[in-house]
Each structure stands twice: as structure tokens, then as C-alpha cells.
# Entry
Amino acid sequence: MKHSLFAGAVALAATAFAHGAFADTITLGAAVSQSGKYSTNGQHTMNGYNMAVEAINAAGGIKVGDKTYTLAIKYYDDESTPARGAELAERLISQDGIKFLLGPYSSGLTKAIAPVTEKHGVPMVEANGASRSLFTNGYKYTFAVLSTSEQYLASAVALAAEMAKAEGRDPSSLKVAMAMQNDPFSQDIRAGVMDDATALGMKIVIDDKLPKDLNDMTPTLSKVRALKPDLLVVSGHSKGAATAIRQLSEQNVYVPMLAMTHCDSADIVGKFGAAAENTLCAAQWAPTLTYRDDLFGSAADFAKAFKEKYGYAPPYQAAESAAAVEVFADAFRRAGSLDQSAVRDALAATDMQTFYGNIKFDETGKNTAKPMVLYQVQNGELKVVAPTKWAEAKVIYPRPK
# Structure
């Protein structure tokens, strides 16, 4: 159903509520960052969850066996702290009686919560914990709709190699610099970049950890100025992305190719304008992709509806969060029951397309059906430039000085 049908669906749902057609409500639990360093992305996560819940309810709710249910979410603020997240997951399950959880924002928080949900046999569909180490513990109740972290900037390394070949250079002649936050997500990205660059014979000339507060990367940029890498890769969530763009501009440091995570949630275009031009941005999703589903319609339909509701274009964190709710709804329908084991088994058998992408879980709970995409800021807009199959524009390389 496209977003243009939402209004009519809301009216139908209101009539159904008035006549008692909905027997009960399925309440999902979520400890999400509303304060602390992840609060920006925590808000994107909550907006995505809420968008999907509202759309599902407006479309008539979820039929589970012989009963129809609405969805609701009980939130707590994890304060961007793993220990607090684990404590709140325990509270949601043991005190509030929540039987199904949506994930928090960030790999670190998800890693703190997953053992709690596993201990209690509570299915969790998560959308913002990409660390590959989440999927090496044998968890049976954690399912992730997003691509795992080692894949995030693999396309940037491949693109650098492709550009080198186009110039008649051997990819092994390229020098790579890395500046990564010391958290599970960014260190997984580092490992993936290391593996891909090493396989192509590229030389890692800078391998730095960003400072804990993510406020200053001057030491790394001084090395970049001296060593002149061909590719600089940065991962530090929203704050790290903003710091990188601001200081590269302020300190007039140049690299032919700049790739990073969290460009959209950091709003590097809106906040930094021309300084953000030609930056490559890893993303889980783009509104220009051709995925679609019956709830939201196309990726573009979702983006339009989201912007109308929240006043800004949806970053991929919001899109993947909405998709997580869709996956739960689909599993409830197929399970035909709210028994946690039955829902867990239905989640494991998921094979569906959403506006966000194809979703199919392997035995570890990873989504193996969706590739990453790479944007580039071109004339103030984010354009998909890789993988080539999904590209809407040609990459600008090297970045003009």
C-alpha cells in the first residue's frame, strides 16, 4: 500500500477501533538512546519504528490466528550506555512482561542486550547493530535486517581499485588511511577494510583510533597531509563524520577519495555545504532503489511519507528500523500465534522483500539478501554510485581540490 492510501486506512482503522474489532495489542519493547552520544541516531531509530507501527495499525493491524492485533512500543532511554541498555532489557522482560524486543541503536548496545534476550528466550529483531561479532555467539533469538559491519566500506576499497585501473594504475600502488572510533561497529569496519585492501595489495599507511569524544582528529589529519594517502576511510558514527568533514575543510587537508559512515544522519550536506562535496558515504539503503512492499510501496514512497511526517528525509537508520517492525509483523502472521518459540521459528524462516530491501536470515541471524550501497555527495545531493548495478550517477574521482 502506498503512502497516499494511509489517510483512508487511518479512517478505516478508527472505525474498527470504535467497533471493537481489535481484540488486543502486541507491545514490543525497545531500549533506545534518547540521550547521550547516540541520541541523534536513536531518534531516527524511534521514528522508523513509530512510522511502521502507525502504518500497520492504519492498514488494519495484524491477524494472528483468529485474532487481530494492533502494535505498540514501550520505550526506555538507554542513555547511550551498554550497561543501562542491558538493565532496561531485563526490566522490559522481567518486570513489564514484554515478550518481543526491537533492537537499540549501535552495535555496542545491541551486544549488551542480546545475551539478555537470549537468556529469556525473547525474540529480538534489530536494525542498528551491524557488528559481525553479534553473529558468532550462537544466538538463536537475535535477527538483524541490516548488512553486517565488515561490508560497510568494502565497496569504497573496490571502487578505489576500479578507479586506479581506469587510470592505468595497479590497485596495489594505492595507499589507504583509516581513522576509526574504538567501538565494535567501527572496529569491524576497520577489519573489513583491512581484509579488502590487503587482498588487493594496497598499503595501509595510517591506522588510527579516533579520540573517545570524537571531537578532534587533527593528529590523523597531520599524518594524511604528510603521507598523502589515495583513500581516507572514517567511521565514528554521526559525531565522527561531522568532525571529519569540518576539520578536513578547516585544515585544508586533501585526499583524492574520502569515504565514511553516517553521512546522512550527521547531515553533512546541510551542516557543511560545499565542504561535504564528493564525499563517499556508506549506506544500508537509498530511496532511489527499486525495492517495494505492500505496506509502504516503493523506497521512494516511504521516503516521501517519512519526510511529510517528520520534516526531514529518512536516513537509512530510520528505514531499516521501519523494516524491522515489518519483519516482526510478518512473523506474527505466519506463526499464527504469539508463542515466543513459534515466532522465533517464523523469524528464522523469513524470506521477504520490504521497501528497504530483501530480507532472509542465515542460521546466525544475519540478513544475507541485501547489499550495501555507496553514495557520493554531488552538487549538494546524495547520489548512489556503487555498486554499479544500483548506481544512479558516475563517481567523481579524484575529488577536485
User: Anything to note?
Assistant: Residues 39-58 form the longest helix (20 residues).
